[in-house]
Specification:
Helices cover about 55% and strands about 0% of the residues. By secondary structure, it is mostly helical.
Length: about 350
């Protein structure tokens, strides 16, 4: 498959273009504009493979690739948003040396999974590097690869990367998903930042970044339908925009998303006029490197959440009725996301 064919995980239907007057369309358009204006800041340093700090040097590029690949599959072919997402994805592939960066990273850290996780986003859109894939197949066949200890949500990410490359899964995906925080159907009042990010990424990995909502088990779907509204309101009230955006994206990953008009209005109001979204609090006016580092992720999330919400088939369901025996989940004192942080 060629790069022009688009993501292999894209849905079969053709997404429709967003309506110009929707809140989500405005968020999507402005956030894409900010990302495009700052695209050069995603470029890794020349010595990225030699520096033991991937979260700083290459993680932004990997996140750009993952979310732009997802947006490509959920936006209308021929539309401005689809075209811009494709430009950003192709620019990311170019600055990654068309795969050479991931080969260098894998050679520097043979037992690390993050080069495979980042590369898989490109591979899912037909952008492949034979040398890296040969090395990845060799590493994935080792006992070390199978036995490395990771949090279950991170293991879901590795399993997703293996699937995209056609590698045998090193663990049972259903068993791993059941072992996560969300897979255990936790008490809703136990929600906080760390568990919140674990829950959102559980959904993203299981649904293949929103392309396959039906892959979420029914009990998890029911739990999310009942409690996502309360979790989202808690984040919005604390101005935790990054996690709020991820929760809005999770809604759109459900086969029948709960309604979220008021939540989207509050979220959109936090976006800066240039399209930037801060992780917390007011959108910054600065445009320097520090502002980029702080805001690139929540702005990527804004694009992702808006594109998923605007995609076809995301008809809001009637509000779910929580368990009457559970405490009031809308109380911010019960559901505070203030502890922890994005993994």
């Amino acid at each position: 498959m060629s790069a022009a064919d688009g993501p292999t995980d894209a849905p079969s239907e053709t997404p429709s273009a967003p309506t110009e007057d929707s809140v989500q369309a405005g968020v999507l358009r402005r956030a894409l504009g900010w990302l495009s204006a700052h695209r050069e800041r995603f470029r890794p340093p020349p010595d990225a493979a030699e520096r033991a700090e991937p979260d700083v040097t290459v993680k932004p590029l990997g996140e750009l690739a993952e979310l732009m690949a997802a947006v490509l599959g959920r936006t209308a072919l021929g539309g401005q948003e689809h075209a811009l997402a494709g430009e950003l994805l192709e620019a990311a592939w170019e600055v990654a040396g068309r795969g050479e960066l991931f080969l260098a990273l894998a050679r520097a850290e043979p037992h690390a999974t993050y080069p495979l996780e980042m590369y898989a986003a490109f591979a899912g859109t037909g952008r492949r590097h034979a040398g890296f894939e040969a090395l990845a197949r060799s590493a994935a066949a080792t006992r070390s690869w199978r036995s490395t200890e990771r949090e279950p949500t991170r293991t879901l990410a590795v399993l997703g990367a293996e699937r995209r490359l056609g590698l045998d899964p090193h663990a049972d995906p259903a068993a791993v998903a059941a072992a996560t925080w969300l897979g255990g159907l936790p008490e809703p009042w136990a929600f906080e930042s760390r568990s919140g990010y674990a829950a959102t990424h559980h959904v993203f990995h299981v649904t293949r970044w929103g392309a396959a909502p039906e892959l979420l088990p029914a009990d998890v779907r029911g739990h999310l339908a009942a409690w996502l509204p309360a979790w989202t309101v808690a984040c919005l009230e604390e101005e935790a925009w990054d996690l709020a955006g991820e929760l809005l994206a999770v809604r759109a990953c459900l086969p029948q998303p709960p309604p979220a008009e008021a939540e989207w209005a509050a979220y959109a109001a936090a976006q800066g006029p240039d399209g930037v979204v801060a992780p917390r609090g007011p959108a910054p006016r600065a445009t320097d490197e520090a502002a980029f580092r702080a805001c690139y992720h929540p702005t990527l999330v804004a694009v992702f959440a808006a594109a998923l919400t605007l995609a076809p088939g995301r008809t809001p369901a009637a509000p779910a009725t929580p368990d009457p025996a559970a405490p009031a989940a809308s109380d911010p004192a019960v559901l505070s996301p203030s502890a922890g942080g994005r993994p």
